[in-house]
Amino acid sequence: MCGNVWMNHFKDMSDFGLLDTSDSVHLECIRYCFLLVISKDLNEVCNIWNTHCVRRNNRISCPAGKPEVLFFQPEVHGARDCKISLVDQRELNDVEREYSQCPPELGVSQEFLTIARAAVGDLNLQYPPRNREEGTELFAAIIMYIERLVYHGNETKMNLMILPYKLANLCIG
């Protein structure tokens, strides 16, 4: 899938009322439910791009071949290696150690991760999702779980009644 597919999917989720982009819990849940699936898709795109063959172009001076081979072994295609080391690796390691932070696990806060894992366990949900549809179902189930924790009123019951209809329309479209 490409970026437009994901943007359209999240827009559809928003249009159907499943996703509220102004709600930080919804944004955390989107990351938790879709980050691994999107990463998998991006890795597939990278693999396809890096292993496709760039054709020779007579109008410009550019070597032909597979991008991955052109980058790592340019001499195979009669090209020269233009990579240069900008800094010493030790200096780079020092800067990285001093100024970088580890990203949060699965792209979400520890607090959200605790709740999401509880939802997955309590509701016997599939994690990680394998595709967009499973991610959408997981998102809806976790949001409903969180709403039940926070709200104990009729609003949650109403959302539970509407949820299957929204999911069916979203996955069809």
From TrEMBL:
Location of the Integrase core domain: 4-59
Q: What is this protein called?
A: Integrase core domain-containing protein
